[in-house]
Each structure stands twice: as structure tokens, then as C-alpha cells.
Amino acid sequence: MGFSGWSPEAVEFFEGLEADNSKAYWNTHKARYEQLVRDPMAELLDELSGEFGPGRIARPYRDIRFRADKSPYKTEIYATLDRGGYVRFSADGLTVALGYYLMTAAQLERYRRAVDDESSGARLAGLVERLRGEGLEVGGGQTLKTAPRGYPGDHPRIGLLRYKGLICWRQWPVAPWLGTTKAKHRVAGFLRTAAPLHHWLDQQVGPDPA
Fold first, then answer.
1. What CA–CA distance (Å, rounded) separates 70 from 72?
2. In Å, how far are 17, 40, 132, 161 from 46, measured between CA atoms?
3. Hey, which residues does 170 pair with through a beta bridge?
């Protein structure tokens, strides 16, 4: 069976979990979670895998060891794609993102050098401007309040230099099309549009060796 979206009942499941984040609610509705929430995500990832690589669905259980909020279950389902991409579904709707959310110190150093460079930095600035012009959000997972050490506050790309990560995302509220194959087309369309940003990050920053 192929991906056909998330039904209104999937939204209702998360609305109920937000109201009653308890083991009792989870145990009573777990089969609905599997059928209405997780199975569609698995089907979506399978259909995207040929172009964007395999995907992995995060566990529904929250790590509450160091949190003041001891709610045991995530009120969302999300997955990551091997070739870059993040898909999230909740009672708020659908979110798709791509990029490097939070860079390590070594990655951040490479990123800032590339932003400072006239050629690669100008190319990134142009990409960001184009993506924002197409209605997508672009920003940092965290942002410094001032210029990073060693860079002038009046740098022409100071906004990009202040980011400690760089991501592009799009969020859609709940609407009837979420329960159709249009949801897949919107996810795939976003990933294709934002792919040049991820390619820039892979080329200029890249992962840190294990």
C-alpha cells in the first residue's frame, strides 16, 4: 500500500496525546498510532528513498532524564533522510527541513571561513536570498548576538556569520491535502528546491570524521 497522507484521525491522535500524555492513553491508542501515524511516515520514506536516500523514524519516547517536563511521549513523529532532510508531522501540521542544525566547533570554523570567502560566501548569500524569495525560511539553529571573534561587525555577510547552524524549512498547517498524496509532492518539492543549500554545506563544511 502506498503513501496516501495523514488522515484527520492522525491529527486527533496527537491532539489527544497533548491533552493526556500518559502511559494509559498511549497503551489504549498505540494501535492507532501505528496505523494512522507511523505507517504513513514509513510509506512516505519508502517512496522518497530512491531520490533522497533511506529514512529513519525517531522513537516516540522522550528522554526525560534531564528534563523538568517528565511527559513520556513525543507529541510529534519525525524522521531524517540519509541524503539530507527532516520530515515532521504533528497536530500543528507538516514541517520539512534541510541543513546543518547545530555545527560542531570544527564545522563552525569551516563554515565561517567559507562565509567570509568572497566567492563561496557570495554564493551562499545568493542561495539564501533565492530560497527566501520562494517563501522558504532560512536561519540558524542558534544565533550569536554579536559578531563571532575575529570577524568585523560590519562584515557584508554578518547575519550568516552569526549563525551556529544553518537550516532551511517550510511549515504547513493542517489542511485537507495532508490526507492525500499531495503531502509527498510538497515534501519532495521542498527537498529539491532546498538541495543547493545542503550541497553548499556538504562541500564547504562537511561532517566531522568520527
1. 6
2. 26, 10, 29, 36
3. 96
- List beta partners, residue 4: none
- Does the predicted model carry a pTM greater than 0.90? yes
In a 3-state reduction of DSSP, which class is residue 58?
Answer: coil
Q: Tens digit of pLDDT for each residue in 36-64?
A: 999 999 999 999 999 999 999 999 998 87
Q: Cell numbers at residue 89, please?
A: 508531522
Query: CA nearest 104: which of 196, 192, 207?
Result: 207
Separation between Cα atoms, residue 98 and residue 119, nearest integer Å? 23
Q: Work out whether strand 166-172 and strand 93-100 pair parallel, antiparallel, or are unpaired.
A: antiparallel
Q: How far, in Å, CA of 183 to CA of 172, rounded?
A: 10
Cβ atoms 173, 93 nearer than 8 A: yes
Cα separation of 150 and 107, whole Å? 16
